[in-house]
């Protein structure tokens, strides 16, 4: 079972990997976006970490809801509302339970992903964060490592896609050949689940 | 790339402190990133709130004042503001007559303003929205995030601002804003990419002998690259693209807008070429504005916006305005 500490570790691990990979995310955002994805995600998850240290929600749902709200209030751009909605919806779906199963987490992330797709209007294949999150959520039943692999493969698979949503879509054909920065940061979020789980085993 | 900054992290806050120091007519909340005209809320008047990423100055903060915006919300460089800012701005300027959000059509801006609208309505503030999407370079709108909001934002903010100043009700101010947007088209070209403070190097690579056609205002590349052309050739190409999308019927407002690093000397020369092409095509120009208004940091280049107007819109355009970025008649 996963408790609030696990979710706090998940958010902290995401903050660390977003911080580490910020330059890469910004580099991916330069040819097809506006060169700010790394710095925006870094600012957002740093704020999430600070908030979670200050207020200490004691349920998994509470951690994710607070993290989502903080992202909406800090990140701006499309990433703020989209990542914020992903975590907030997932948090709401987890309710007040003190511990949740991995299957419940998978269901909650599914609800969060539905929220992202409704808000942003993106479908799989549009070259967005959805392309990493859909396969990851599907693979969660096979464990965090499988989800991580699926997310990373999903992010890589955005390279040949033609962007249909977000700023890259303005480039038309010229968006082809570049990996989507949002899918890449989504893969970092999913990968951080394995780090949070490994930390528990130590 | 040398920049006149302290550190990248504080560029927006530093600029806001400078706005506060330079413009006592404005109330600048540096911490919460809201710029409000000092006399707000104005009794009985519809308030106009806009905002967007920083790096487009004087848009939007430089257009706050009598006759134009009631408040502006600057985000990080090229990043839309967060809902908390718009909520705070709406609360500061609403007199009870309602608030019009003027939103450039970018995914981030739309999502954040929509979230703010929902929260403001929960608090009893009446909100209407005008979405600006004038950029003809974006085709296949069904398969993209849609046309971008660029130069026409200035026309919408000025004309809707004048309507609000006259005491028109919210639905009329909104309708006028929509009318301006629907009758406006913009096309932009870049001679160089721009450099964001956070990245410190150009956002895309544009070789010396080439120009980029159909750029937006966020340092994102355009749709097509060609060998460098003369000012006259660029004017031919640009006006053709605009008129193909919006066949001329009425006289137009013309905005020849520098992207930030192109000298006024070049902009005026280019403006002459645009006038030549428009005259050849039988389009009457009612008013012309030349300068750096909707910029993209240090990008070199220009955008042309045409807005087809009637007598009423022209009257509202000519109405007095007093803001840091645009001022006449008062």
TrEMBL record, chain A:
A GO molecular-function annotation: kinase activity
Keyword Kinase in record: yes
Domain DhaL intervals: 5-195
InterPro entries linked: DhaK_L_YcgS, DhaL_dom, DhaL_dom_sf, Dihydroxyacetone_Kinase
Keyword set includes Kinase: yes
A Pfam family assignment: Dak2
Keyword field: Kinase, Transferase
Domain of life: Bacteria
Matching NCBIfam families: dha_L_ycgS
Identification of the protein by name: Dihydroxyacetone kinase subunit DhaL
Organism of this sequence: Streptomyces tropicalis
Automatic annotation (TrEMBL), chain B:
Keywords, in A-Z order: Kinase, Transferase
Organism: Streptomyces tropicalis
Enzyme class: transferase
Protein name: Dihydroxyacetone kinase subunit DhaK
Pfam families assigned: Dak1 (PF02733)
Keyword Kinase applies: yes
InterPro entries assigned to the protein according to its UniProt record, in alphabetical order: DhaK_1, DhaK_dom, Dihydroxyacetone_Kinase
Domain DhaK: 7-328
EC number(s) from the headed UniProt entry: 2.7.1.121
One Gene Ontology molecular-function label: phosphoenolpyruvate-glycerone phosphotransferase activity
């Amino acid at each position: 079972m996963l408790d609030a500490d696990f979710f706090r570790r998940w958010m902290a691990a995401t903050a660390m990997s977003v911080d580490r990979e910020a330059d890469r995310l910004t580099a991916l955002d330069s040819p097809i976006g506006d060169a700010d994805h790394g710095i925006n995600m870094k600012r957002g998850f740093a704020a999430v970490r600070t908030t979670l240290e200050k207020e200490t929600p004691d349920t998994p749902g509470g951690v994710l809801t607070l993290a989502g709200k903080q992202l909406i209030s800090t990140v701006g751009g499309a990433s703020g509302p989209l990542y914020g909605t992903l975590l907030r919806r997932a948090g709401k779906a987890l309710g007040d339970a003190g511990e949740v199963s991995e299957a419940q987490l998978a269901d909650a992330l599914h609800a969060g992903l539905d929220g992202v797709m409704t808000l942003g209007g993106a479908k799989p294949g549009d070259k967005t964060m959805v392309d990493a999150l859909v396969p990851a959520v599907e693979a969660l039943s096979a464990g965090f490592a499988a989800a991580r692999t699926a997310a990373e493969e999903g992010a890589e698979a955005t390279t040949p896609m033609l962007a249909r949503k977000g700023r890259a879509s303005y480039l038309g054909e010229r968006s082809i050949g570049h990996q989507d920065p949002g899918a890449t940061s989504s893969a970092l979020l999913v990968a951080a689940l394995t780090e949070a789980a490994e930390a528990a085993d130590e | 790339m040398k920049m006149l900054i302290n550190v990248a992290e504080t560029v927006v806050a530093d600029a806001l402190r400078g706005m506060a120091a330079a413009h006592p007519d404005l109330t600048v909340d540096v911490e919460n990133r809201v710029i409000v005209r000092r006399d707000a809320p104005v009794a009985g008047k519809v308030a106009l709130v806009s905002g967007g990423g920083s790096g487009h100055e004087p848009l939007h903060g430089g257009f706050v004042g009598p006759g134009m915006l009631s408040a502006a919300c600057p985000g990080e460089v090229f990043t839309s503001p967060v809902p908390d800012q718009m909520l705070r701005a709406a609360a500061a300027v609403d007199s009870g007559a309602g608030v019009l959000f003027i939103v450039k059509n970018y995914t981030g801006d739309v999502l954040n303003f929509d979230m703010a609208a929902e929260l403001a309505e929960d608090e009893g503030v009446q909100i209407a929205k005008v979405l600006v999407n004038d950029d003809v370079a974006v085709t296949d709108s069904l398969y993209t995030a849609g046309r971008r909001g660029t130069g026409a934002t200035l026309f919408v903010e000025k004309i809707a601002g004048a309507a609000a100043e006259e005491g028109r009700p919210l639905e009329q101010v909104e309708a006028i804003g929509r009318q301006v947007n629907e009758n406006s088209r913009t096309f932009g070209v870049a001679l160089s990419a721009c450099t964001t403070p956070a990245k410190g190097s150009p956002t895309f690579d544009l070789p010396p002998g080439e120009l980029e056609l159909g750029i937006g205002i966020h340092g994102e590349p355009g749709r097509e690259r060609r060998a460098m052309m003369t000012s006259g050739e660029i004017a031919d190409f640009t006006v053709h693209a605009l008129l193909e999308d919006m066949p001329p019927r009425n006289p137009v407002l013309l905005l020849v807008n520098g992207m930030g690093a192109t000298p006024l000397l070049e902009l005026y020369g280019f403006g002459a070429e645009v006038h030549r092409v428009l005259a050849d095509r039988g389009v009457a120009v009612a008013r012309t504005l030349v300068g750096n208004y909707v910029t993209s940091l240090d990008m070199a280049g220009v955008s042309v916006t045409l807005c087809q107007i009637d007598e009423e819109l022209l009257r509202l355009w000519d109405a007095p305005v007093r803001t840091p970025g645009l001022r006449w008649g008062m």
